[in-house]
Design brief:
The chain is mainly α and 112 residues long. Helix content is 38%, strand content 0%.
Length: 112
Amino acid sequence: MTGPKGQWGGSRPGQGRPTKAPSGDSCEKTMAALKAAAKKYGKSLDNCLIEMAYGKGDFEETTDLMRFRAMELLKKWTIPERAVKVVKGQVRKELAVELPPKLPDGFDEVKH
């Protein structure tokens, strides 16, 4: 069946209900809460994740799974990924322009 499946969009890719991004106000509130917690506890969230990933400080007795998850969070959310784009050029297997056949020796000019 083609056409819209409901109130929003159709069956084509990229169609449908638009996703909601977090508003600037909610991001500012979250950052303020993180700064307040870092000031209260004396450690930022990043420092806690690093200590947990390496099993140091307050996190010496964490399990391997917890250490792995901390590393995963650090890598996924704090280290930017490089965008790699591979562009392949057009490959021609024959000549782009057809050339006339080569004349045998002594027939450099064609007389009509």
